[in-house]
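Here is one such protein, fold included:

. . .
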Amino acid sequence: MPIAVKDYSWDQNEKLVYLTVPLKGVKTNKVDIFSSEEYLKVSYPPYIFECLLHQPVDDEASTAQVGNGAVVFKLKKTDSSQWPQLQSDDAGNKEVMKQKREEALEKSQTRAKEKQKAKEEKKRETEKYSINQMMQIEETDRERIEHLKQSERNKATEELEQWKNEQMKQAEQEKLRLLQEKYKEDKIHRKAKKEEHKDEEIQDDMFRSGVRQNGHIEVKFTPRVFPTPVRESTTPLEDEWLKKQAESRRVVEIEDKDLSEQEKNPVWLRDKGNSFFASGDYQSAINAYSHAIRLNPKMPALYSNRAACHLKIRNFFKAAEDSSKALELLTPAVQQNAASRCKAHVRRGTAFCELEMYVEGLMDYEAALKIDRNNEKLQQDADRIRHIIQTETTS
């Protein structure tokens, strides 16, 4: 049976009650303390201290410290009156003590449940707040990313429109140049025929008069014209393509003592770039093609091959630009440059699709299919792009 402790001490002022309970040599880790507004209990076997307070106290603002061989309670009064004694007059009544003990235990359990509930509620509120903050941050990031993507789309669209306008302008200039050349050729042809008719008239007059005269007769031949319809003949276009190819072979002379003879040869640089490309060194290949272009800016293969390198390192705007330059040089469209035109269209179409400009990309793939109609791989890629466009339209 526990031994009741009677040799405690207490003191008070207007606000606090101080109570000291000796531990009688018991270790502090074996002390069990329980308190409520009216009831105190300190259990440290074989000793026990129970106290039914004279007046209720503020249990939340009260403290208990264990140390130096004693338990010291600092109890906050609910009013400033002086207590005549520490314990209530009912402290000697076992039934009342039992009732107060049970009430104190029940209140303590209820208070513990309320604290746990409040703690859980606060935790839920904190988690809810954290989730809301994360959602706001994610929404802000999504809006920022969408804004960046839209800005890139707008920029790409503006650049494409500018490029289209430049292409149309260049096409008009090329058309005007061809018309001017044709006009000059027709004028020279008419002049030659006129002089030929004039020579024939002079010869007829000399024959009729029977006069033989010594002199030099200049004979001119008119070009032979074949009866093939113009819409079916590609000879003028092929002649123009051959003329452009001959011009493209002219190398710009660069005075640089640091360059070897090979490094001044654009064909050697093109082959060197192809070697770099095959080994996966795309930046070195770009450098080789760029140097070759500086030597000879009219070789379409240099631009087309450099576009393939830009695709590999995801410089899609550069790839589209180089492909367009290659197509510009691959004119007129003849059978001799069909394969090169097909590659340039495919590379520019691929760059457009990577930039999410699927309509423009499909136009280039369809242009490539007109050149190589039996290419199943091109047909599959074009069908895939159409499917993407249709999906975006329906969504």
Notes: DSSP finds nine helices and eight strands in the chain.
